[in-house]
Amino acid sequence: MWTAVGIQSFGGGSATLALIRKAFVDSSGLVTPEEFSRDWGLVQIAPGINLFALTILIGRRTGGAAGIAVGLIGLLTPSIAATIVLTALYAHIAQVPWVHAALRGIVPATVGIGIAMGIQTLAPSASEAKREGVFPLLTCIAILLAAVLAERAAPTAVVFILIAGGLLGACETAIRLRRSESKSEGTQ
Amino acid sequence: MTDPVYFLTFLKASLLSSGGAGNLPILHADLTSNRVATSGQFAEALAIGQISPGPSGLWTVSLGYLTRGLPGSILAAVGITLPPFTILALRHAYGTVRDHPVALAFMRGLNFALAGVSIVVLIAVLRSAGINSTSILIATAAGGLGLVKRIPVLGIFAAAALAAVVMAR
């Protein structure tokens, strides 16, 4: 099942996710829709590639340690092999004029889709911040702009920029919660 | 850069990021500053990763091959496979903090910072392929189609490649 997903999943993460769901929830029933949703929510906080973490959770759920090994090997072996073959092929024909020209189209498309994915990822968080008030939304925008400036000024400090962004967001919320608690205590 | 350091670079980038392209800014910073990779190789790897089967994060395997050959791709593959195992420990801890507003706000702030850093890196990647009216047009069209989600990603790439070949003639 995992190998079938690995071979068929052309189209990136969303295609792979759809195939995993179809194989383990819809077709075999090895995982319930609730379990699948819970696992997918959980892997959002895991370091690294979300789909690897999802494979680990489903593998563990369906077969313990052996299930994890079978899941990762089954999913990744064909995908990694295909990526290596495609890259090796590309390395051989990279200087062919039409390949070079095609890449000049694919790279901007990759950037455009990357930005689109970023917008889609941020949209729920931006809506949530907007619901909380103007200040949380402005904080998010300020973090984004500050990260752009910081990355331009110090490109090697990415980790610190990300942690600083997280801390700024956490501080804003902590201060806001404390103020609202103080207000509610004052009214009582 | 020695092989162990090269491997640890991929491991660190994945350990400190989330998602298929979340490790892009950290890898870009570490590998370009050490002259192990160029922005052009990042652009090529991202493009190949998009047309390969499997999770979109496998572009790092392509980057490994472009910079260090087959051993590089294997080191990259192992480096990105290990960090997701932390999910087994996190699933126990997650239940206690997942609904805490401050924990959620930390993740939200981190995601907005990641978006800001990614914008700068993506512009560097675009610059490596040459910024002109054609590339901006293709990037805008691909981004728009990506947002609409009506056309498969592979179709968008095929159209972009075809448009670039036609315009180059």
Provide the fold topology.
The complex is a heterodimer of chains A (188) and B (169).
Chain A: H1 2-8, H2 13-27, H3 33-42, H4 50-93, H5 97-132, H6 134-153, H7 158-187
Helix pairs in contact in A: 1-2, 1-4, 5-6, 6-7
Chain B: H1 3-15, H2 24-33, H3 39-51, H4 59-81, H5 87-97, H6 101-129, H7 133-148, H8 153-168
Helix pairs in contact in B: 1-2, 1-4, 3-4, 3-6, 7-8
What does this protein structure show overall?
The complex is a heterodimer of chains A (188) and B (169). Chain A has seven helices and no strands. Chain A has two domains: 2-93, no CATH class; 133-188, no CATH class. Chain A has helices at 2-8, 13-27, 33-42, 50-93, 97-132, 134-153, 158-187. The termini of chain A are far apart. Chain A is flat, with a radius of gyration of 22 Å. Chain B is mostly helical. Chain B has two domains: 3-129, no CATH class; 132-169. At the A-B interface, α1, α2, α4, α5 and α6 of A face α2, α3, α4, α5 and α6 of B.
Helix content of chain B: over 70%
Average pLDDT taken over every residue of chain B: 85
Most strands sheet of chain B: none
In quaternary terms, these chains amount to: heterodimer
Average pLDDT of chain A works out at 84
Shape of chain A: flat
What integer value in Å does the Rg of chain A equal?
A: 22 Å
Total of DSSP H or I helical runs spanning 4+ residues of chain A: 7
N-C termini distance of chain B: 41 Å
Helix and strand content put the structural class of chain B at mainly alpha
Strand content of chain B: under 5%
Sheet/helix structural class of chain A: mainly alpha
Tell me the Rg of chain B in angstroms: 18 Å
Largest interface: pair, residues per side: A-B, 100 and 106 residues
Low-confidence stretches of chain A: none
